[in-house]
Batch of 2 targets.
Target 1
Amino acid sequence: MKRQILLLAITAAALSSCTTAYKTGQTPDDVYYSPAKPQDEYVRVEDDKDEYRYNDDYYDDRYLRMKVHNRVQWNYLDDWYGYDRYSYRYNYYYGSFYNPYTSWNYYYNPYCYRNNNVIIYNPKQSHTIANVPKPRNFNLASYTNANYNNANSGVRMNSFKPGTTVTRPAYNNTNSGRGFSNTVKQIFSNNNSSSNRSNDSSNPPSRSYTPSSSGSSGSSGSSGSSSGSSGTSRPSRGGN
Amino acid sequence: MKRKIYTIIFLLFSTITFSQTPEDALKLSWFQLRGTARNQAIGGAMASLGGDATANHVNPAGLAFFKTSDFILTPAFRFGKGRGLFRGTDSKGENQTQFNLGTSGLVFGGFGQRARNSFAITVTQQADFNYTSYYKGLNDYSSFAEPLADEFFASGTTDPNVAINDPSVSLLTKMALWTYLVDTATKNGTLNVIARSENPSVREQENLVESSGGVTEVNFGWGSEINKKWMAGISLGINIIKQERRTYFHESDATGDTNNDFNFLTYDEQFTLKGYGLNLRGGLIFRPKEYIRLGLAVHSPTWMPLKESTRSGFAAHLDNLFGPNDAYDSVASVEVPGGNQSEFKYVLNSPTKIMISGSYVFREVEDIARQKGFITADIEYTNYKWMYYAPYEGERNDVTKAPFEPYNDAIDAIYKGTFNFRVGGELKFKTIMGRAGFAYYTSPYKDKELKGRKMFISGGLGYRNKGVFVDLTYVHRLNKDVNFPYRVNAPRANTFADLKDNGGNVILTVGVKI
């Protein structure tokens, strides 16, 4: 909250520091009609004293000022002011063996081809999720399942008392018959011949294996030790 | 408040993997833009009106109406309370308040030959992820663990320890196996996969989601007056995306039976999403006659490279199944095999939007004393089936795109194209203005039983004089949505909650003509 109050304070300060050209007269409303910005009514004087110039006049002026100050002190820069700056500007050394930028790449950059084209290669690995467990299972069939059950068979939050016997509702929900994609059909047809999941819409599904095979825990809730699997096992329980 | 119900505190470690859903894609695509106070007062309509900085985010051709420059700031304050109806039980959420930002920034008008060009740099909060949803109710039909038992059953093994080490089994199902909530049991000589939370005839379920963050967009736009009748514009949007969401689900035995091997289960998930987005917007405004404006705008999909992480924990209390001293067990996802994977990255593309619009401006003249008002309306079409997930990097081929296909198929199956409507008007009395507006965003869900909508009723006042303008707006929202705590396979039926989000947003825009 303090940050937001600070933001509002900065906002107010920023706005109060703004100057407007419309303190007098009408304030234009751009939604309706906006006239062009009012022009200065006095002679405009070019003021370029703060410009950062790199033209020949600038360098000539500087060279003359330096020479006037001390004729010999800056002799070693005579060559540069005389002609080197033109050479550099027009890429005299660009592409040459002596240019440190290109010669390094030529010999040492492993991604540099011999024609001096520097290639910066960022090797990115392709990323797949095939072996990454998902936090939640994503089942397309459950997303396309348009059967809904949003009413209890007779219990309500405010009237239900623990211990009440509840009869399960006898719903007869059917699929809407909408044309789902082939992926959905494949999911429905991919039945395991050795197992059976009941297709009763009104009761929790029974998930049984036929023929019966040994499981890790019985209905009595005994300790769940591994039956031959390698890797991590769930903790044993009920051993006390 | 609701957290007191939970008697368990999980130790959550960094477990980061792939958990996006079609619902997450919708959250990043189904929202109302936050314009200036003036724009929000007129329902957000801005595809043909122009002359407001919001045009930079809707139809940049509207920037061409600027012949002068503006600097604006739009702070806003949002409040409200959510409600959830779940299987006949109505629950109220907590009050929520939050500062947010409407369109703010700079518009530079009147550049170039005959002052025909305008530029804008504006920022706005596109989507707001600050919300809390809560619902609870009795359920005598299905359990949270039903799809978990189904997944174990379909995994091809009868050994829970094999499934725990199987990378194709989800972390949630592994945690349910770890805590013996989902298990195998021999009944009448037949081995079954069971979910012990299915033992009671009725369960109490509750779901709490606390979310924060949003999508903030910085937009660079250009508008130009081609001639007196035509205006054109284009803009580039850069989105900054961040969401933190915590989901608690609690299911308990409502029968009071202490010998049915189930007392309660709790799932706690912390989800973080970060990334950015890029989009382009272009538009035209045609003025066939003075005072009439017709607009067309197209928004490209927002290309969003995203990085997500999920941390979760699971607990189960199984009455006296393992004796009185070993009834309860909990596990963090990092403890199960595969739970310490690195973070996951992917790309989400939002759908294209197309808008047509019309405005009538009463007295389009320079003298503000003669300007009387305007009415404007937008119709927007978008198709949420156009959202799709894609690989983050590397070559895009059938192999790399394959993991995303089920998600994209689900998006195709459950969402549809929608028309959204925005209408509003203003009455102007020289320096003072009064406004009203309405916006309606229709349901993105293909199934008519799923009621989703966003509806906004708005009104506001404005003052403009001496180079300064101040606009104050109130927007009342009446939003509906649905939430599925879990999903089951047909022919079993899904259950979902109807959510309502009612509240207000007070928006203030302060601007200076520069």
Target 2
Amino acid sequence: MTAALLLATAIAWPVVLTAAFMVRRLRAAVVVLAPTLALPALALGFAGEPALELQVPGLFTSMRLGVDGIGRAFLLLTALLWTCAVWHTASYMRADPRRRAFTGFLLATGTGNIGLTLVQDTLSFYLFFALMTFAAYGLVVHTRTADALRAGRVYIVMAVLGEALILAGLFGITALATDATFAAVPDAFAVMTRPGLVATVLLLGFGVKAGLVPLHLWLPLAHPVAPTPASALLSGAMIKAGVLGWLRFVPAGEMSFSAAGITAMTLGITATLAAAVAGTLQRDVKTVLAYSSISQMGFVATGFGAALLVPTAAPLMVLAVAVYAVHHALAKAALFLAIPVAEGSRRPLMLVTAALPGLVLAGAPFTSGAMAKAALKSALGGETWPVPVDLLLSVAAVGTTLLIARYVSLLALAPARIPATGSNRGGQSSRELTVGLVAPWALLVALSVVGALWLPWVLAPLGELPLATQPAYVAGALWPVALGVVLAGGALLLRRRYPAWTVPSVPAGDVLAVVERAARTLHSVGAPLARIAPGHAAARGWYWLEARTGAGLDRAAAAYDRAAAGPALGAIMVILAVLLFLALR
Amino acid sequence: MSDILSPDVLLPAVVLVPLLGAAVAVASARAAAATAVITALLTAAIAVLLGRAVVAGGAVTHAAGAWGAPLGIEMHADGVAVLLLVVTAAIGICITVYATSYFRPIFEDEEDRGVRFFWPLWLLIWAALNAIFVATDLFNLYVCLELLTLPAVAMVALDGDREAVAAATRYLLLSIAGSLLFLLGVAIVYSGSGTLALAAIRESGMDARAAATALTLMTTGLAVKAALVPLHVWLPPAHAGAPAPGSAVLSGLVVKAAFIIVLRLWTEAFPGSLLAPGADLLGVLGAIAVLWGSLLALRQQRVKLVIAYSTVAQVGYLFLVFPLLLEAPGPAWSGTMYHLLSHALAKAALFLAAGAMLRAMGSDRLDDIAGVGQKLPMTFAAFGIAGLNLAGMPPSGGFIGKWLLLTAALSSGQWWWAVVIAIGSLLAAAYVLLVLRAAFLQPRARPLRHQPPWQLTAPALALALLSVVLGVWAEPPLLLLGATAPDLAP
Amino acid sequence: MNLIMASSWLPLLVLLSSLVPGLIIVFLEEERVQLRTALNITGAVAKIVFVALMLYGVTHGHTYAWSLPVMPGLRLNLVADPLALLFVALSAALWLVTTIYAIGYLEGSPNRSRFFAFFSLCVTATAGIALAGDLFTFIVFYEALTWATYPLVVHRGTPASVRAGRTYLAYTITGGTVLLVGIVWLYALTGTVTFVDGGFVEAAAGGAVTETRIIFGVLIAGLAVKAAIVPLHGWLPVAMVAPAPVSALLHAVAVVKAGAFGIVRILYSVYGVEYATLIGAAQVLAVAAGITIIYGSLRALAQDDLKKRLAYSTVSQVSYITLGVAIVGPVATLGGLVHLMHQGIMKITLFFCAGNLAEVHGVKKVSELAGAGRRMPFTMAAFTIAAFGMIGLPPTAGFISKLYLGIGAVQAEHTWIVGVLVVSSMLNAAYFLPIVYRAWFEDAPTGATMGEAPWKLLVPAAITAALSLGAGLFAAMPVSPLELARLIIQRRYGL
């Protein structure tokens, strides 16, 4: 009962806050209360036993709430991140004139993000997912700079594309499902004529949010321009909503989705490598992190793809995916929140601390990262793949390490050298380090570093995590990181030695330029096509005819009148005479 | 008391009362208006009583001077006849009320506008119309037709200005020619069948070729008077030139009288002829009339001319009955008659409204009446309602008529007539709108010459509303019509 | 209560509740504002009460019917079956808000008596169309609607509006006449015009497939004009010169809806979707609707004039209704029917807001909307809700419609329709989101007038916006449009 109450509160509280924010008089109070947004959810995440169900008939399409194994993991990471990030925002935004509006969008976005981890039916999931997606636009364009608006445009276009694809998938499922619950999804797929198509559509639809290459275009643009806490949430929590979407809507393990699986794996592996390269060559610290996220999501996609391909491997894969999601969320959020802190102080200790989550991310031994990679590899190990997946993933890990190195080096630079972005507007060179600014970061760092200790407990319902302490795993985890560090050091030395050399840079959003050009051409072609208005043809034709023939008609009529008045008489008389003759003959 | 209400009194009375009124009106110009009003009310009352009698006890017949047909004057009123009498009476009352004010000079400079002659002419026409509706033999029909035509021509010339006289002359010449043709046809029939009573002719089994000749002659003659294209040339100038109440009578009733005679000839005297190609020819001419008349109406610049050309088009509808009558007798017959009745009401309303505009603005040119809608709400309301009737828009008698005619065309598989009807009603809507949009244009500075009194606005509105009543309360009249549908068995 | 339940006069009363005020108002002088307002509101409220009573009765299995003999064999039949109620409830509810809005909108402008008179006649005709129990009654009110609307379209009396009026009539009268021919033809063929759940054509004339095909084409061609199906949609964007309340009426309550409702009737009560599909007519119709949906959205993209953009969006949105009923299967029909209501409340909100913008700040173009959210927050909030609804985002009403349409399409295995829905959703977003963006994320030009609309203009928008949200958010509630539509489906498919 209390659990049910907690569940209700967890979802109701954000809604209440958001609604209250709409009322001008309450707004100030709400802004103060904002950090409590995710606290009930957090409590639920720790307290709530799985398989808790609660139905709200009448609301929307009779909404179902609940916490299950997967849901719990995502609920926890979401709640944690939101608590820390909003808390952080309070001091981060102190100087910002648009602070309130930002809080408003945070609340709405948070409501969506928390809500989607708590619902147990596809339609409500879509509801909260959409809320999150569209509210987050306000976070992206917060600074209203040209970059921000462009990023926002790209974000919203991609988002709409994603929503549309998900909608299509939703039709496919709901049409055949007995009810809207997630439980009914597998049966729906079982009776589909083309389950593969639906799965692929959903993979791509949620892929937009999950930064699946090539649908990742918005990420590298949105992160740098958004205020740092927002970036942390985008990269940490909201991306994971896409992953949760995958797990909820596509029943991996129930059947084999070859097309979707192969797509996911190919794109995933490509992402892990390409994103690492593109990210290393970035100039903006937040863009670097954005690419790191894309690369990490590549791992997740690979895992999920494998699960789609090999139903037998699915349980392990799902576990791996989950652990990846959680630990990446914590680490990435920590890395982002470090940036404002670094703007306050660059003491080595701080930099080292800031780097720690990076090592976790790279999968240094005994970290949750290593654990995640181990899970992924052991799951993949069961199968034989056309390409050396194992090796490729290790190479990707090297890339991750390099990314982190790049991150640290950029972090170490003076703020003046950091391109003006949302994080330090108006060339504001340094921040005062308040508790509100540092504490959330520190907390996240801590949680991420010791993740190996508590993640197994979080994910227990999903299965036993492989111990990452066996020598094989340790070695496998160690060499990529080591290699990465060596390479990074080498690069640093070269740079010292030959300052003239300039690192070639990739434009943020890499292939976006191409896409944009394509879109423009498409529009210039399509616009004229849309301008045909067949409807008026008839009317216009009539007016044309009237204009041309009207006068003629008048003349004809007049002529006939003149003629008929006289000759018609004559004609009638003639007829008369003839008939007279005929009749009297 | 009861025998005063007996058909033997009512039937002659419905003709004689207006005739008497006309005589009185001639005798004393001063009492003319009063006489006319009284006569109108009396005649209307008689018509209604007659109607009641027929509804109650079926068709009634009265042989004047106790000689029956073929020698004497026999009067016969069936469902159709009483409907025509009643509708004519309704129009008659409205026109009479209207005329009491219409001719009143607005300014001193205006000379007396021929009201002295209007009253007798109008009552004479009324008498002739009633006589035609109840006549049963060709001779009476011929006489009444002449009684109808001559005052009608005079009515056109009433305004006395040059083009009115010209129009009247043209009307006179053509209708005399028509009369001659008709008379000749009558002569042939008499020589061929030895009788003039319509029913008797049918039994007489006269020589087919003579019959065909006679029918052709009479139809042609009447087609002139009914202004069937291509013999319509006299109508627009005449109906547009006459004073408004006159135009209302001419367009609403006089033309119809000629058509009624044609219809009765083809159905009562020579039903076999419906098989002849002549029936289709009449249909084709009707179709041409619908299109030609409507198109020309669209081209007119004066309201009264628009309405006049619309008469040419609407008469065309009536002649569509001939090709339809055999395959779909029921709907074709009642549809045509219903269209005739509601068009009579609507067309009278239109001309009365147009007259009100003319009086109010001193002109009925379309650009002169632009924007006066707000100043003449009643008049434009009347025009609008009556106009929608012409376009066959529900709820109106025109719609019922159109529905029945379409049913006739489509159920007999002659869809092409349906197409004509549809296009015709579209064009009708178009030319009605031509006038109506003037009502909605932003008011101009141009002031009213004078605000028309109720006598000029109420009658038009009343007639328009009557035509709507015909559209909602259609079952009784239709049953009456159906009961008297002609028996076409040869 | 039982008396009222059983009273067959209710359908007539629904009509009279707007007819009588209308006829009285015709003869009111311009200055009698109080009386006129009183008449309007009383009539509107009365109508809602009557409709509510019938709603109660019908949901309890009662059917109301009133009829008047017109011609031998043909009567004026007013029947309140669930489908009729769906439409009449919509028009009654929206009439009240639109009246309030119009009173506020036209304050102090000329010819208000004429306006409100025809306004009431317009709604009367609509109610008649909704309650029509056969095609004869339907065409009577359908044509009446055409002419009752004309004075409203040309109300401003400017040459532009008179031209628009001409275009409007040119389209609608032609459509009406074609429809009439179709109806009479069907009557001549089957000998009946009375609506029957599931259709009567197959039973009456199933043999004459070719003829029924042609007649179907004629009927739909006639209705497609008002339903604004491409290529017969041309009048709709032109007619937007009319005052805002009229646009609201045209797009949401009366005219366009009448066309769509007519198509629903043809498919649902005359031919029956199954038979229409059997003779291949429904598929063609569905394709036409699909084309219209995409085409309308594409045209909307290009419009800078706000009302024009909304007009083209109507072209696109209304065809969802057609699309829904043209697909065999309960769910698709459900989607189409519920959209009949949803589109109404959402689109009327948009037009109210557009009217407010034009009336208060003279903002008529999308390009002038910068900072509109600051300038009139409540209006734009309402607009945003409705716009999201049009895009089909949860939890708005639009999502519910789209969802059931999509499900129906999948169940009928018309994957291409899913494609149409998805693409159109994206296009809707493409032409609505920029408006929302300008309003909320751009700053108002310097020296822009600030200030919210007067309450008479604001309250209606707020109400309909709330409805647009509530109809989706509480779709599973027993009183929601969805449930009413479901009632219809259950009657038809005996679910």
